[in-house]
Design a protein that fits this description.
This protein has about 475 residues and is mainly alpha-helical. It has a single domain, classed as MFS general substrate transporter like domains (Growth Hormone, Chain: A, Up-down Bundle), CATH 1.20.1250.
Length: about 475
Amino acid sequence: MSTDVSGQARAAAILARLDRLPSTRHVWWLITLLSLGGMFELYDLFMTAYVVPGLMKAGLLTNVAVSIFAGPALFVAATFTGLFIGTFVFGYAADRYGRRTIFTYSMLWYSAATLVMAFQTSGFGVSFWRLIAGIGIGVELVTIDTYLSELVPKSMRGRAFAFNQAVQFSVVPVVAFIAYMLVPISPFGFDGWRWVVLIGSTGALFVWFIRRAVPESPRWLINQGRLDEAEAVTASIEARVIADLAGKSLPVPQSHAVEEAQPVGRLAEIFEPRYRGRTIMLMVFQFFQTFGYYGFAAWVPTLITQQTGINLHASLLYSFIIAIANPFGPLLGMSFADRFERKWQLVGAACCIGIFGMLFSFQDTMLLLILFGVLITLSNNVLSYSFHNYQAELFPARVRARAVGFTYSLSRLSAIFASFIIGFFLQTAGTKGVFGLIAAAMLIVVISIGRWGPRTLDLELEEISR
């Protein structure tokens, strides 16, 4: 980007125009489109928990009691190994090639890999293609967070991420219900788990529609020195917002910070004094939050079976009932997402996960198991939308996707180990041991975010990253 005064002033003016936009139908439509793209990603990700019983039934995975290095733990670990590669190795892609381009091609990547996985006939084949799909999902996760944070005005970033997560998580009860209906049977002689996987690969059918309707991030264009394109995108969004307002004038742009002119940042930059503290804080947070989030979400049918001794079909039914709660956590969060600091939302959610998890582990009646399962799910989803927003706010545009990908990759890495560790705790200490582990991890989350997390509420992205 041009470093002269006029170039900096023009960039600042474009950013000010973006951040002054009111919350109108067109702005929410852009948020919805990005969220719909992420919905297919969440289907694919949460499918992990619900196809495991079917894979075990088909003899493709051994029972969890046989070995912690086989069975469902291996399949879940393959998923998160792919996610780690996607976020750590390829997280930079959206910074280099653009948010819109990578949003599109990562979606095509994991859809194609999931399609291939549905036709595998060995545990190795299923796990291998699950890993390949996980790479695409990991890239998509990073890209959507980066993309969304840069498109929406500062006054509604919290609500935008809460809505984004509500739309995405609305697919979780869908995949749970589909699994409940299909996994125990074999329609047309084709294993039910394969049908569940095939349905997850249909996201590719929608990708080009979404791509055509969503513009490139003006912030990314500015950092590439493409000010004319950034101006055109911003003007197009403004025109549609004005149409939503029935011709009323937009608010007057205020003065706005602008970042240093640098098209693509270096990973080493996030460890320089300016960003080192928040990078380490996020690394610690991401490593331990996974134990609470995926420790429950990826294992819920297995945990219910272990706790009650019920059969596969009943376990999937109760898991579906719990999964219905997924969209309601972020929807609840929309009422306070832009009222309280993100860091304290994270702290509160982590405390609730630890407390409700321990209470879950002491229940022996199905009604109370479902109640505390729902409360854990709601808390997990408040944690999720809060941190997806928070991590994208803390770094400059030139390195945002790379920084988010690097710190987020720690959660993918910990999920690999968590799969085996939770399998070990489940085998040796039962559900009480699993939720004791989760409570300890949530305590570390509370300390890291509460003590070292910076303030971001209603601040310009460029102001936060100074």
